[in-house]
Amino acid sequence: MTSRPGSAPVTQAIPTGWRRRIDPRLALARVQASAIPIVQIVVAATGAYAFAHYVLGHPAPLMAATVTVGSLGLVRDARPGRVLETVLGMLVGIVIAELLLLTAGTGSWQIGVALGVTLVVSRFLSGQAGFAIAAAIQSLIVMVVPSPAPFLRLYDGIIGGVAALLVTALIPRNPIKTELRDGHKVFAAVDSTASALVQALRRGDRFRAERGLEKARAITPVVDDWRSSLESGLAVARISPFLRRQRFELQRHDRMRAAVDLAVRNLRVIARRVVYVCDDGRARPVAADLLAEVARAAGVVATSLDDISLQPAAREALTVVASRLDPAAVLPDASLGDQNLVAALRPLVVDLLTATGLTPAEARAIIPRI
Question: Do both 198 and 108 map to the same domain?
């Protein structure tokens, strides 16, 4: 933008997001992660449109394509139930708009009424906000775009929904790759939290302890992502003939996820205890060493995600550290607070042992009695 003579140069305001450089590696990673969803959407939308247009003779089957795109999407949760729920939401919007067209015609106020009724009905039918938005978009399209025959777009929407469900089963997304990535993120977060707590104990640093507590609390959403990707993968594996061999691995990882979820909760308890004991500023090397050993053993458990044959090694590493978790033996002259900190490691190790395939009773039997 030019400036007047004698005045300071005027620069055009550019949104921060536009000035930000795109990282080619991150951009390529996004594309690679979405490769199968993109193929699903392209195949389903094209197939649904072609069937409605060339086989059934519908002149412009827009809904056949839009329903597939809207129901599949690029989201993490691609389970058939979610896809079906989104399809039903879109069909609700189409039906409401078609009925309003027959009774009141089209126009500005009719569009407002259609959107209002659609949002109210869809919110009544489902607690998911996406359900209502999907219904509203389809309702708006029906009210704005003319159609040669009533309820023709409802048939197109049904065709698009069927196509979306078919590609979910026949061109499945890679559930193992997605949930493994999420699982390793959980273990990485656990390791980062444990490292902060170990440093706090070695230095008697309350600030680091509080930082470790913050990290421990931040693991919950990461665990939730892992749960979501596992549930999605298991749901798709049940209907896809191409994923039957992966069901065992997905189920094993889901059992590990349940155990690690409990371990994360116990890690938060430990973090709170570390904050408490570090209030006096004294170093606690024994507790730090024990927690560091647990963290290293948890790292071996993480490697068993990819290779089940490493489960015995993970179990052995945890068994070694479990044998030392007798508070009175390792800290005979310590305060009750310090002994309670060591005692808090015991349920954490039990949960991690359960993640290696042991039953809770077998895991508890490994911990020394106190």
Answer: no
